[in-house]
Automatic annotation (TrEMBL):
This is GH18 domain-containing protein. One of its GO terms (molecular function) is hydrolase activity, hydrolyzing O-glycosyl compounds. One of its GO terms (biological process) is carbohydrate metabolic process. Keywords: Glycosidase, Hydrolase, Signal. Belongs to the glycosyl hydrolase 18 family. Gene3D superfamilies: Glycosidases.
C-alpha cells in the first residue's frame, strides 16, 4: 500500500471510530416473544445508560393457526398480559432512562415464516401508519424496531415501505426513534442495505448481541445509516 493510500485509510478509520465512540451507549432487550411470563421489572436496569425494551413482535398477519398476510395492518403478538400499556407507563416512570419500542416482523408467526408481504407500496404504508399509530399510542411507546427476516418482496419494495413508514411516523411525532438489527445473512442484508442507502437519516442500526463490533458486516453497515 502506498503511503498516501495508507494515510487516507487511517483517516477513514478514524472518522468511523469517532462516530462509533460518540454514540451514546444503549442497551436493548427484546421481550415478550416467548410468553414466559417475563415482566419489565424482572430485568436489571443500569441507570447510567440508555435502556430500550423492545416488545416482540407486532406482525402484519392475522392471529390464529392459519395466519394470512394483512398488507400492513399490524396485530400485537407479544405477551400483552405481562407487558401491558399500564406496565409500560409504570416502568418508564420508575426509570427515566428507559424507552420502550415494538419490533415489526420477527422470525415466525404460528410456526411459519413471518414473510414481509405488501400488496402495493402505497396501501401497505397507509395501513401500517394507521395500525401502528394506534398501537404505539395505546401502549405509550417511543419507537419501532424492524426485524423482518423473511421476504416476499424485493429489497427496493421493502426499503420504500419501511422507509416511508418510519419517515411518516417520525414526522407525525408518533415515534422518536427507529432501528434495525440485521444479522449475517446475504438475503437479509440485501434488504436492509437498500433501506440503509435509501433512508439513511431516519433509521438507526444496532447489532443484536454483545456489542456493535460483534460482526464485520454489521460494523460497516452501522456507519452509513447514521450519517
Ligand atoms: C412464508 O413463505 C413460505 C414460502 O416462502 C411459506 O412456506 C410460509 O408458509 C409462509 N408463511 C406464512 C405465515 O404463510
Amino acid at each position: 500500500m502506498s503511503n498516501l493510500k495508507l494515510f487516507f485509510s487511517l483517516i477513514v478509520l478514524l472518522i468511523h471510530a469517532t462516530q462509533i465512540l460518540t454514540q451514546p451507549t444503549v442497551f436493548r432487550e427484546y421481550i415478550g416473544a416467548n410468553f414466559a411470563n417475563v415482566q419489565f421489572s424482572d430485568v436489571p436496569i443500569n441507570p447510567s445508560i440508555q435502556f430500550h425494551f423492545i416488545l416482540s413482535f407486532a406482525i402484519d398477519f392475522t392471529p390464529g393457526s392459519s395466519p394470512k398476510p394483512t398488507n400492513g395492518k399490524f396485530n400485537v403478538f407479544w405477551d400483552s398480559e405481562n407487558l401491558s400499556p399500564s406496565q409500560v407507563l409504570s416502568i418508564k416512570r420508575q426509570h427515566p432512562n428507559v424507552k420502550v419500542a415494538l419490533s415489526l416482523g420477527g422470525d415466525t408467526v404460528s410456526d411459519k415464516a413471518a414473510n414481509f408481504t405488501a400488496f402495493s407500496i402505497d396501501s401497505w404504508v397507509s395501513n401500517a401508519v394507521s395500525s401502528l399509530t394506534s398501537v404505539v399510542k395505546q401502549y405509550n411507546l417511543d419507537g419501532i424496531d424492524i426485524d423482518y427476516e423473511h421476504f416476499h418482496a424485493s429489497p427496493s419494495v421493502f426499503a420504500q415501505c419501511i422507509g416511508r413508514l418510519v419517515t411518516i411516523l417520525k414526522r407525525n411525532r408518533v415515534i422518536s426513534f427507529a432501528s434495525i438489527a440485521p444479522y449475517d445473512d446475504g438475503e437479509v442484508q440485501r434488504h436492509y442495505l437498500a433501506l440503509c442507502v435509501g433512508y439513511a437519516g431516519p433509521v438507526h442500526i444496532y447489532s443484536v448481541g454483545p456489542g456493535p463490533l460483534r460482526d464485520d458486516l454489521i460494523f460497516s453497515l452501522y456507519i452509513p445509516c447514521n450519517m
